From TrEMBL, chain A:
<dbReference type="InterPro" id="IPR036884">
    <property type="entry name" value="2Fe-2S-bd_dom_sf"/>
</dbReference>
<feature type="domain" description="2Fe-2S ferredoxin-type">
    <location>
        <begin position="1"/>
        <end position="76"/>
    </location>
</feature>
<protein>
    <submittedName>
        <fullName>2Fe-2S iron-sulfur cluster binding domain-containing protein</fullName>
    </submittedName>
</protein>
<dbReference type="Pfam" id="PF00111">
    <property type="entry name" value="Fer2"/>
</dbReference>
<dbReference type="Pfam" id="PF01799">
    <property type="entry name" value="Fer2_2"/>
</dbReference>
<dbReference type="InterPro" id="IPR036010">
    <property type="entry name" value="2Fe-2S_ferredoxin-like_sf"/>
</dbReference>
<keyword id="KW-0408">Iron</keyword>
<dbReference type="InterPro" id="IPR001041">
    <property type="entry name" value="2Fe-2S_ferredoxin-type"/>
</dbReference>
<dbReference type="InterPro" id="IPR002888">
    <property type="entry name" value="2Fe-2S-bd"/>
</dbReference>
From TrEMBL, chain B:
<dbReference type="InterPro" id="IPR005107">
    <property type="entry name" value="CO_DH_flav_C"/>
</dbReference>
<protein>
    <submittedName>
        <fullName>FAD binding domain-containing protein</fullName>
    </submittedName>
</protein>
<dbReference type="InterPro" id="IPR051312">
    <property type="entry name" value="Diverse_Substr_Oxidored"/>
</dbReference>
<keyword id="KW-0560">Oxidoreductase</keyword>
<dbReference type="InterPro" id="IPR016166">
    <property type="entry name" value="FAD-bd_PCMH"/>
</dbReference>
<dbReference type="Pfam" id="PF00941">
    <property type="entry name" value="FAD_binding_5"/>
</dbReference>
<feature type="domain" description="FAD-binding PCMH-type">
    <location>
        <begin position="1"/>
        <end position="164"/>
    </location>
</feature>
<dbReference type="InterPro" id="IPR002346">
    <property type="entry name" value="Mopterin_DH_FAD-bd"/>
</dbReference>
<keyword id="KW-0285">Flavoprotein</keyword>
Amino acid sequence: MEIKLKLNGRAVTAAVEADTTLFDLLREKGCYSVKCGCETSNCGLCTVFLDDVPVLSCSVLAARADGRAVTTLEGLQEEAADFVGFIADQGADQCGFCNPGFVMNTIALLRENPDPTDDEIRGYLAGNLCRCSGYEGQLRGIRAYLDSRKGKGAQNGN
Amino acid sequence: MMTIQNYVRAQSLQQAYELLTSNRRNRIVAGMLWLRQTGGSVNTAVDLCDLGLDTMEETDDAFVIGAMTPLRKLELHPGFAAYTGGAAARALGDIVGVQFRNLATVGGSVYGRFGFSDVLTLLLALDTEVELYGAGRMPLSQFAELPQTTRDLLVRIYIKKTPGTVAYRAVRIARTDFPVLTCAASRLDGKVRLCVGARPGKATVLDLTDAAGGLTPNTVQSLAEEAAKQIPTGSNSRGSAAYRSHLVRVLAQRTLSQVGGSGNGD
Amino acid sequence: MATENYRYVGHAMRKKDSMQLLLGKPVYTDDIVPRDALVVKLLRSPHASALVEEIDTSIALKVPGVVAVYTWKDVPKTRFAIAGQTYPEPSPYDRLILDRQLRFVGDPVAIIAAENEKAANKAMRLVKVKYKLLPAILDMHEALDNPVLVHPEEDWYPPCPVGGDNRRNLVASDVESNGDVDKVLADCDIVIDRTYHTRAFQQAMMETFRTYAEMDRYGRLHVISSTQIVFHCRRILSRALGIPKSRVRVEKPRIGGGFGAKQTAVCEVYPAFVTLKTGRPAELIYTREESQIAGSPRHEMEIRVRLGASSDGRIRALDLHTLSNTGAYGEHGPTTVGLSGHKSIPLYTGSLEAFRFAYDVVYTNLQPAGAYRGYGATQGIFAVESAVNELAERLGVDPTELRDRCMVREGMNMPAYYGEPAAACALDRCMAHCREMFDWEHRYPVRDMGNGKVRAAGVAMAMQGSCISSVDVGSATVKLSEDGTYNLIIGAADMGTGCDTILAQMAAECLDCPVENIAVFGADTDVSPYDSGSYASSTTYVTGKAVEKACNELKGQICRIAADLLGCAAEDTVFEGDRVRCAADGRTVSMEEVAYKSQVGNVHAAEVTATHSSPVSPPPFMVGMAEIELDKGTGEVKVLNYMAVVDCGIPVNPALARIQTEGGIVQGIGMTLTENVTYDHNGRPVESSLMQYKIPTRLDMGHLKVEFEHSHEPTGPFGAKSIGEIVINTPAPAIAHAIYRATGVWHRELPITPEDIAMSRPEETHRA
């Protein structure tokens, strides 16, 4: 079947099978930031936005995306670049394999809740597994980013 | 990986129902979770996503929840949070992750009648009804007992705003894992109910209205002991039957205390 | 010793690949290989022990898109080992690419190559196999001298004498001692005699095993693999496939985590074999299930500790026996077990009068084990540190103070550690520092929080090594580029740890230039200088020293070239980072001028390769403290705080050292509380997915705090030791200790589940 979707802002037409997952379609379309870490909807590595809502692309039929907007990290490079440097400063990127899913879901969190508490951050990102960092550095990085944003806001207010 | 021959977005409930009942291997697509790990083959996958069933409405006397409403919506609904006194967030917040709960649907959770379901446990403790296409409304407790083989099309869920309180508690080995045991207690309009899931079997309900006697610390203690004796438990990789029965007692005691007003559920 | 004197070493900085990784660029194996590669799948044994009686591939081969199906009849008959170890490997040669005898649930039966995944999966279901079921050994206690043999084959071959005998299901066995341990034990006021059990925990790196193979433009086998060991991998492939090493090239792109899993060539031989047979590019990606059931997890071990002490808390004797389960194949079996004693007993060098360490490593019909961060030390330290905590509790002595009396200290010689010296050891300072940071005085006492909740704390120490002494080899090539910048080429493998960056920091320090001026490349057997690979915590310590050597030699070469330009003698020149000065008259030439000169009429190589190996393996040391809240009703344990102080010599990059530590601690918390490994009655692993194998989420680990105590290791680069592995060793004993404090029950088996806690009762009262 043929589906039409908006992928990272661009209209895309794709021929898919009824059981093609959105994950497979996205990698076929060159969105290599989307990673697979499990087959059981547990790891969060394949997180993308479906109409701006973070979902697991391994658990969405490509056909469900017909007529909708899909966003991957390839389409959010500028918004991501804003804060990932703070993760890098902590060294919390580590192997990097979980990073795209983690970055996507952090963007979703901050769009939904621009000033989250540490517990809100942990809760929102609980579905993003990371085996390298021990999570604490990711939290420090997000916190440092939020602090810097507040600092900037204060400066702008002057 | 589940194989699927055809995919159809139903344009009406009637079309969906006809498709569902026309072939034994046709299936409704809800949250789509676990596609990759699930084997088997589906002839036609019938998607309800175009039918506007992904909304949750609060009326004067009920919450009306479309079958395609994501768990995340139920978790965040301010009215439902207020009505359940936080039990909703407690029951939903540990289910895998936000992305998962954005996909998993209330209808899928209820229809699946999974043993491990936090959702089913919570909703069974409330005055919940399901609406089935064609068959109309029936209490969730009745639906939960139907065999999984019926070819029903679940349309909506109604949670009546019966005045009262509900408490929820589950034990997990890791925070976002399947629960070892789930437990919800409610006192709604004087009726006291205890609902236990992940036994590991499907959630079961005990009506304790007559025995509750005001839910004093003493009655709660004996009700919890009694529940541990009555509610059948089994063993799986997350816990033995003996441990689960122990947990029934502990969690029943805590949740009943909470709805009785003598504990905070911890 | 002061790191502030260094400009780059000892300073936190971003990893060189950070932004690529964080912005999701295509840098991993499956991102960079051609889309039209054959998809390789493995049909796996459903039985723990069986013989392939008949196998029929004819129907499978008819599936459209299927290119080839290989069985045991098609593969070379030379046995090999897939453990990534220096030749001759201590691991036995006990594998074939496909064997007629199947030894665990998941052992490959057939290799399927197809144009796409669907066809490969379909063909897999259509391979007709008739199995002859054989009796299986599913309990390691029953393995030794069982008439059922896991490896009855005549051509089983151990390249090293490690005490193994396949006719006894024995992979390795040894005993060593110092002093008369029986006599000292008999003389002790108190003897703790306990047995501890740890399971085959999974590394569960986020990127599963995967390998791509193709024939390159010279007709050589070119393998791109997610591996920690490119050179060992080349040697393994050469032997397994029966082709010369000169026909094999192995490279690694970025790696999505390893933790030792990828120190074994778990999946490389299969796509390589397909490419060799078909001439076509081929890629094999393990599913998470395959990674969980046919990977290379930690060795299950049972360790009996007999600890003798005086009534005033001096640990006088340690007697360890370890039974290790290597599973169906012997990868890393003979070596992991050694660490269970060698990296636990020496912690008590300060008071120990005698020790004995004996072990047996046995085959079973379970998933073959391999290398996992900590490599046996983790298991041994759980046992010994738990026994020490039990001693302290029996004596009513503060367990940190008891350790102060007994621990190894700087300058001591460690008889239980191959007689090597603790030349740099800040363990005493780690303990004092951690005690204060953690507020041990107030957190150690058990606190009742009401509602059945109790707070309590526990402690543990740890050590590890910094390489395999006199074995591991690290090399580095440093070369000058036209603009005066450098290329650093290594054979070690950055698997997310940041070694590319750390080694560049060292090079920048030596060459007195910004870290940005050092471009790092690794690893590729055609390009990189030889390196054993990244394991045994060796990269910073061994390869780092090679970098230091190479840079220093390169400075000499640069001065020689500059001397030609300056018209003075090389001895009279001074290397000044961005220029070279003639000492006599002060004239200088820029590094760029030197670099261009190196390309014109020049006879001095503007590049140097240096190699290093160390006769010692200086241990890093660590203290970890856990505070938990335990629910006595449900048995749930919540880690509230985990604090640790590490002595890794000098942390070359403190941010990365801290993250290594935090990551290791959380893995340690996982194996203590949430990760389980069980089998059904057929020997099939139950926890075969991340749905069942629960690695910690960020809600499961509490708050972490990590700090460092510096020491200066004279044999290490800039005083550095290692960090990679030691960090996983303290959580299990520290949390088990805290659980005892909260409940009065010692749990001696991992993981410790809520059920274990809720359903157990305090043991016999202390019989002193």
